[in-house]
Amino acid sequence: MHHKSLSLKTAFAAIIVCTGIFLAGCGQEKPAGEEQPGLGRRLDVRSFGARGNGKADDSKAIQAVIDEAAPGDTVYLPKGDYLVRTLRLAPNVHFVAEGVLRQPKALSDSFSVEKQHSDAPLFRAHRVSNIYLSFRAETVNEAIYASQCSNITIANSHIAGDSTNRRSFPGILWYSCSACRVVGSTVSYYGIARKSAKSYNPGTAIRVLSSRGVTVSGNELHHNGENGIFVHDSGDIEIDGNYIHHNGMSGIQVAFNSAELVTNYRITNNRLEYNAADAIDINNRAHGVVMPVRALIAGNYSWKNGFVSGESTPDGSGIGTLIGISDVTLSGNRAFGNNRPALYVEGCGTITANRNLTDGAFELVGRWDSIRMEGNTFPTLRLLANADGRVLHLKTNRVTRALLPNDIRIDSLLLEENEIESGPVNINMEGNLRFEGNTLISGHDAGALLLVKVGSAFLKGNRITNKKNAAIAIGKTAHQVVIDSNFVSSGGAALHDAGSPGLQLTRNALDEQVTQP
Asked: What string of DSSP letters covers 211-236?
């Protein structure tokens, strides 16, 4: 299945580029070097000595055309196989290829932490701008390595790497670039396929480092050794409408060093399938400070992430893994069949999740500031034992179970108008509870709602049902409990009070089905 949907903005921009900047490859063929009024010339490389027979090295002939082109010209490669080493791009000179560019195997280099770009990419761009590229290529190193560039567009391209390289460079590498984009293209087979759930090999489709204003839209990124898209220390990033599948790590990963640079992300309408780690991973654990990334994660679909040949990897969240970040909204995402929780939130600030649909858990870990979940459908809300939050607000969700361990802290736990399909809900925490307008059903011996320990609790307008024993059990360490205007149905006594100080019961309807001895 191919999923390539350009956003209207991107599609319009592509039309402008195609019709307004150059004509090569978009309309009828013109003789080599013919003037196109206001658009520059189209320069056919065969007219300048390139062979395109797959045997002769055409690097010098094509480079000579690029070097001699005037601003606004388009270098054009007709059908054929062009053996090429490295081509250096020139500012304001475009490149369109119907033929296939191939790098010789002898140029193959290896990625390492110390060497994160090769010496021989197919295209090298440095401090150049205003370039349109549309091409087909098979490369052994990067298809393009661009540094300190601006306004470079790669569109409608088909780029394949070396699937036998265990330490592959990325297909596309943006470093310290701005206003660059990859649209409507396929990038695949950079790096060897992941074989083990315990290890992986480098090789990413698109790698963005220390850049701003990068758009990745309407592409297919698949079968790369590591990530589909990896972004580090970059901001103003739009990732929209891509089909990202069968990659060896996360479909989309955002990482930090100078965390203040990582801001303004739109990750929308992507399809993420069969990636060996998370669908989307935004990880600021190492930085030590919660950073406001201002991210929208919306309309994405994920399926079967977090597996290698059927074996679970340590990762695999369906909607996203969020660590050490704030100001994130997750809306209208769908996730099914993934390995790990659909949403994993660790040590974050303000997070909003609304209208998401998943068969995976929502899991909260560590300290957070304010988390709001509204209108979601998911099976399990799970807090780990170190959970420590200021506000957790759940409204109009449909959730099967809410698992809250003992001795957590939530300053304000607000549950309003939720459907909780399976109790008990255990409240044994530091903090305050407001439980209003919910439907809670349980068939557990312990009951439906257990108020063991809480600073204060206000229960109003709920429908609470338990088929066995008491529906609501209240411990002596549950303080300032008010239970007002609830409908409580129970297989035993509706309420069991173990000595809660200051307990208030008003206007409740109790349906107690106590079996007489």
From this structure: -EEEEEES-EEES-SS-SEEEES-EE
Q: Which helix (H) or strand (E) holds 16?
A: helix 8-16
High-pLDDT (> 90) share of the chain, %: 77
Residue-level pLDDT at 257: 82
Alpha carbons 85 and 89: distance in angstroms, whole number: 13
Query: Is 19 or 222 the better-scoring residue by pLDDT?
Result: 222
Q: Which of 395, 393, 363, 357 is nearest to 377 (CA)?
A: 357
Of 416, 406, 414, the closest CA to residue 371 belongs to: 414
pTM for this model (two decimals): 0.89
- Is 90 exceeded by the pLDDT of residue 486? yes
**SS3 (DSSP) at 406:** coil
Helices vs. strands in the chain: H and E counts, helices first: 2, 53
By the 10 Å C-beta count (0-12 exposed, 13-18 middle, 19+ buried), 515 is classed as exposed
Query: Which pLDDT score is estimated for 10?
Result: 43
Closest CA to 126 of 85, 91, 101, 86: 91
- As given in the structure block, the two tokens for residue 203 are 């090789």
Residue 26 has a pLDDT of 39
Domain locations in the chain as residue ranges:
40-102
Tokens of 155: 């569109």
Which 8-state DSSP code applies to residue 32?
T
How far lies 425's CA from each of 273, 381, 487, in Å? Answer: 34, 11, 17
Q: Calculate mean pLDDT across residues 325-351.
A: 96
Three-state SS across 487-509?
A: EEEECCCCEEECCCCCCEEECCE
- Residue in the block written with tokens 């893994």: 321
Model pLDDT for residues 174-210, shown as the tens digit of each residue: 999 999 999 999 999 999 998 888 888 899 999 999 9
